């Protein structure tokens, strides 16, 4: 059996939002391929400590803080690696590369260098997932009002919308989802439709957002660009990972008006539940913009919200 190698990798962000990739040197496996900086976790060392050490040794930068993100495994010809990815947003110093053939700052939306190491390819898609998901509730506030608030949110930077309208008639939902897609396209935003892959495809949406009940019975991932899932337990999160979803939403982190009697997870339990998963997880439940830093410190990719997305107060 191939021994598993623990590796810590960092997504290093610059102030303009670009992230750093390094090209592997000629005398290494996969020479010429591009990767996220990092290296092996030494015995007795934690992954975050390993990353801080590696980035100092490889790049000469001093990392102030790292945020846990996702963990992926990959079986190479020479090793079985488990990659612990962290986001590095707070660092200082001037880059002095000591191990790579080249370095490149890339845009999340469209990295230009390649090829990528096979284990790192899925990370590029995960980085494209917006940090905030707005969830519609037109049944509660009216279609006209929802579209008005959508326009304002899109103009303000919202780039991911989940159409979720339980109780809306199918014919009305079809027209509503198509209108959401049209308005989102004008801003380069993505749309997923809750619970209905066929309707998502019909309306030109980018993907589908599955319920936990759907997760339990689906045998294969729907054939759409983006597939997400609502989860409430570790078992559901692991099932979502097995199905190969692009993201999960976990809640409720805080008490909500939508589920007033439901016990909240809190941030400590949230962080515990998502630890070590291979896909990004959005935090859900009673959250507002001011909660973003706390969410990401707990390992969340970002936040999904209904009222917090449309509240203009």
UniProtKB/TrEMBL annotation:
UniProt entry tagged with the keyword Metal-binding: yes
What are the EC numbers? Answer: 3.6.1.55
- One Pfam family, short name please? NUDIX
GO MF annotations in UniProt: hydrolase activity
Which prosthetic group or cofactor does it need?
Mg(2+)
Question: Which keywords does this chain's UniProt record carry?
Answer: DNA damage, DNA repair, DNA replication, Hydrolase, Magnesium, Metal-binding, Mutator protein
Q: Which reaction does it catalyse?
A: 8-oxo-dGTP + H2O = 8-oxo-dGMP + diphosphate + H(+); 8-oxo-GTP + H2O = 8-oxo-GMP + diphosphate + H(+)
Reading the lineage from the top rank, the first entry is Bacteria
Sorted alphabetically, which InterPro entries does this protein's record hold?
Aldolase_TIM, MutT-like, Nudix_hydrolase, NUDIX_hydrolase-like_dom_sf, NUDIX_hydrolase_CS, NUDIX_hydrolase_dom, ThiamineP_synth_sf, ThiamineP_synth_TenI
Nudix hydrolase domain span? 3-131
Q: Which PROSITE patterns match?
A: NUDIX (PS51462), NUDIX_BOX (PS00893)
PANTHER family noted in UniProt: 8-OXO-DGTP DIPHOSPHATASE, NUDIX HYDROLASE FAMILY PROTEIN
The record's family statement is: Belongs to the Nudix hydrolase family.
**Name used for this protein in its record:** 8-oxo-dGTP diphosphatase
Q: Which organism is it from?
A: Aromatoleum toluolicum
């Amino acid at each position: 059996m191939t021994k598993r190698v623990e590796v810590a990798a960092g997504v290093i962000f610059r102030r303009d939002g670009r992230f750093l990739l390094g090209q592997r040197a000629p005398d290494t496996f996969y020479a010429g391929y591009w990767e996220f900086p990092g290296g092996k976790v030494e015995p007795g060392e934690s992954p975050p400590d390993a990353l801080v050490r590696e980035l100092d040794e490889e790049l000469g930068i001093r990392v102030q803080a790292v945020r846990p993100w996702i963990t992926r495994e990959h079986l190479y010809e020479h090793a079985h690696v488990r990659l612990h990815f962290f986001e590095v947003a707070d660092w200082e110093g001037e880059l002095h590369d000591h191990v790579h053939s080249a370095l490149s700052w890339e845009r999340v939306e469209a990295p230009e260098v390649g090829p990528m190491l096979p284990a790192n390819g899925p990370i590029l898609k995960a980085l494209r997932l917006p940090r905030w998901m707005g969830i519609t509730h037109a049944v509660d506030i009216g279609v006209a009002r929802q579209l008005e608030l959508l326009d304002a949110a899109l103009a303000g930077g919202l780039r991911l919308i989940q159409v979720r309208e339980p109780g809306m008639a199918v014919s009305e939902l079809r027209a509503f989802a198509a209108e959401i897609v049209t308005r989102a396209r004008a801003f380069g935003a993505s749309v997923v439709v809750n619970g209905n892959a066929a309707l998502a495809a019909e309306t030109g949406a980018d993907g589908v957002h599955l319920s936990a009940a759907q997760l339990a019975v689906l045998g294969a991932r729907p054939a759409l660009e983006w597939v997400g899932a609502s989860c409430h337990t570790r078992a559901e999160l692991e099932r979502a990972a097995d199905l190969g979803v692009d993201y999960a939403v976990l809640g409720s982190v805080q008490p909500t008006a939508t589920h007033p009697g439901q016990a909240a997870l809190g941030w400590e339990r949230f962080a515990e539940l998502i630890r070590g998963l291979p896909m990004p997880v959005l935090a859900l439940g009673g959250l507002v913009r001011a909660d973003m830093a706390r969410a990401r410190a707990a390992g969340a990719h970002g936040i999904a919200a209904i009222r917090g997305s449309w509240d203009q107060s």
